[in-house]
Structure formats: structure tokens, C-alpha cells
């Protein structure tokens, strides 16, 4: 682990109110960290959003450090004992999602954790007895972006442990949806995505990577790209869905964790048309780590979390553990 927590020594702490605007408490983050113990519940934390000073970079290089805000729902936040536990998990989560972009060149893509907002209320995500309407949550995230809640970041990701659904034909609830994002909206008011993740399990990493790729400019494979209304935007018809890359609906093999050539070319196209202010790194990351999923949890612990309430977790394991639910973009 690198010197991540030192960046908390001087910063501002924010919280989201019911109207979705930011209130500045100017609380020293060092005292925030000290206020949490392993026995305290993070869901009672009022100092829930931590940032760092900006750092200006004037040179445009072949590296695109995507400055990322992560927003967590109240239920998601309460699954962690302390702020430190949550932020460390999210940093590792983002490391895992970044592996998908490992093959990217011109630019190389890295994901940088700039900001964490933890006290988003159920009202803001419109939580119901059926779960979270994913389209409503996405729209509310966009409204927060328009109000400046994510000005420190190029993209903003909402992670929810609640089950998400979408309305089909305005009458039928469909639960087979895990994530959603706006296409090619990095650094715009629509720079937001929504996705499911079971805390401590990293189950939503691939979904988050898929939606981040959408934000950076990648459409689904085997798409014409005509509906994007972006002049010159390259389609992906030369990349069949059957190849099973990240932006495909099919496939569960190694390619599922990689971008197709079409996806990379689409990201490059959007990158070449981004403003300098978007590409510039405006601040140092709030926390960094060299850790990845699997390094901080045993197989038994992971199995027990995935099969809660089962006395013998191995009894319910199947050889086919793939989830056929797919990310959606509308």
C-alpha cells in the first residue's frame, strides 16, 4: 500500500442533502479517520465524503488518468465498519476494474479514485420495495452532476447493494439488469453510471468496467454507432458479439475481461476530441493501493459471504457460476 492516507491530512468534507446539493463542513480528515474504530458503524458517520486538494497538470500525454468519484448507497455503506474499510475496498475495486483497460494504448487508461460520497439517501435513488429503478437512479445521478456534485471527477459511479430493476413496457418489472451508463459522456453532465455490487465480494467489478467503458466512448460490440449522433464516431460491426469481449452480451471466458479492438478504437476517438481541461489531472488521488481482489480475503471467507445463511457453503456451489444478466445502456 502506498502513502494513501497521508492525503487526508488537509481536505474538505462534504455531504449530500435531500436536495442533492453539497454542504461544506471544512472538517479535518485526520480527525475523521480517528473518529472511526473497528466497532463503530460507518452508516452513522456524518463525515461521509472526503476529497483532496487539486493538482494542475498542463501537459497532454498518452496516459488518460480517469478521475473517478464513487457514490455508495446507505445500505452499501453500512456493510462496512469504518470509513477506512470502505475506501480501501473501493480502491481495490477500482484497481480490478482498471485491469480491463490494460491493453489500451494511445491513450493508456488508468482509473484514479478522487472522491467518495457515502451518505446518499434512499430518496435520492428512489428505493422501493422492489429495489432500485436503475433508470431513475441514473437520472438522479445526472441531476447531481449538473448541480456540481462531481466537479472534481471525470466520471461518477454509483454502487448499490440493492437489487436493481427496469420497467419494461411501463408495466413489467425486469430484474435482469446490473448496470447502466450514458455513452461517451466523460467530463459531461451525463458522466455518470449505476451498478450493482455486493460489498466485500467485488461481484460488480466487471459491470463497473463495462459501464466505465461506455462513459469513455465504447458502445456494445456489433453496433453501427449511427444512433450516437457523434460525427465520425466509429461503429463496432467488425467485432461480433460471439467473440465475447467486455462490451458483448455473450461469453464468460478470458476475453470477457478485455476490450475488443472496436471498443479501444471508439475510446481513442472520444479521447482525441476531449478538451484539455478534461484530460488534465486536477488533483492527486485520495487513496491508492497496489492490492487486488483475492489478496485480502480467503476462499472460505468469500464463499461464506456469497452463500450467507448456509451452514455448508460448498453444498450449494455449482460448476456453472456465470450470471447471464447483462449491463444495459439506454
Automatic annotation (TrEMBL):
Query: Gene3D superfamilies this protein is in?
Result: Collagenase (Catalytic Domain) (3.40.390.10)
- Identify which residues the record assigns to the active site: 211
| The Peptidase M12B domain, residue ranges | 64-283
Query: Is Heme one of the keywords?
Result: no
- The positions annotated for binding Zn(2+) are 210, 214, 220
Q: Name one GO molecular function term.
A: metal ion binding
Q: Protein name, please? A: Putative tick metalloprotease 69
Amino acid at each position: 500500500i502506498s502513502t494513501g492516507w497521508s492525503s487526508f491530512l488537509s481536505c474538505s468534507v462534504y455531504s449530500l442533502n435531500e436536495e442533492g446539493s453539497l454542504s461544506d463542513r471544512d472538517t479535518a480528515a485526520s480527525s475523521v479517520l480517528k473518529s472511526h474504530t473497528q466497532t463503530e458503524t460507518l452508516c452513522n458517520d456524518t463525515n461521509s465524503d472526503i476529497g483532496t486538494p487539486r493538482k494542475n497538470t498542463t501537459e497532454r500525454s498518452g496516459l488518460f488518468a480517469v478521475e473517478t468519484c464513487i457514490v455508495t448507497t446507505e445500505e452499501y455503506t453500512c456493510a462496512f465498519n469504518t470509513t477506512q474499510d470502505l475506501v480501501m475496498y473501493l480502491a481495490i475495486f477500482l484497481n480490478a476494474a482498471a485491469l480491463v483497460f490494460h491493453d489500451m494504448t494511445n491513450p493508456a487508461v488508468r482509473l484514479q479514485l478522487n472522491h467518495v460520497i457515502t451518505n446518499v439517501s434512499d430518496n435520492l435513488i428512489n428505493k422501493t420495495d422492489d429495489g432500485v429503478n436503475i433508470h431513475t437512479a441514473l437520472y438522479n445521478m445526472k441531476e447531481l452532476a449538473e448541480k456540481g456534485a462531481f466537479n472534481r471527477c471525470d466520471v461518477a459511479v454509483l454502487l448499490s447493494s440493492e437489487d436493481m430493476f427496469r420497467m419494461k413496457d411501463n408495466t413489467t418489472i425486469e430484474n435482469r439488469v446490473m448496470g447502466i451508463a450514458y455513452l461517451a459522456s466523460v467530463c459531461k453532465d451525463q458522466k455518470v453510471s449505476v451498478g450493482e455490487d455486493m460489498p466485500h465480494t467485488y461481484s460488480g467489478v466487471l459491470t463497473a468496467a463495462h459501464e466505465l467503458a461506455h462513459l469513455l466512448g465504447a458502445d456494445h460490440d456489433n453496433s453501427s454507432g449511427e444512433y450516437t449522433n457523434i460525427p465520425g464516431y466509429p461503429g463496432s460491426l467488425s467485432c461480433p458479439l460471439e467473440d465475447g469481449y467486455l462490451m458483448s452480451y455473450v461469453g464468460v471466458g478470458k476475453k470477457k475481461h478485455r476490450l475488443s479492438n472496436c471498443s479501444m478504437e471508439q475510446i481513442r476517438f472520444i479521447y482525441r476530441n476531449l478538451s484539455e481541461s478534461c484530460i488534465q489531472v486536477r488533483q492527486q488521488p485520495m487513496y491508492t493501493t497496489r492490492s487486488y481482489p483475492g489478496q485480502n480475503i480467503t476462499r472460505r471467507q468469500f464463499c461464506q459471504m456469497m452463500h450467507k445463511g448456509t451452514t455448508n457453503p460448498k453444498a450449494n456451489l455449482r460448476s456453472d457460476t456465470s450470471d447471464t444478466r447483462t449491463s444495459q445502456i439506454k
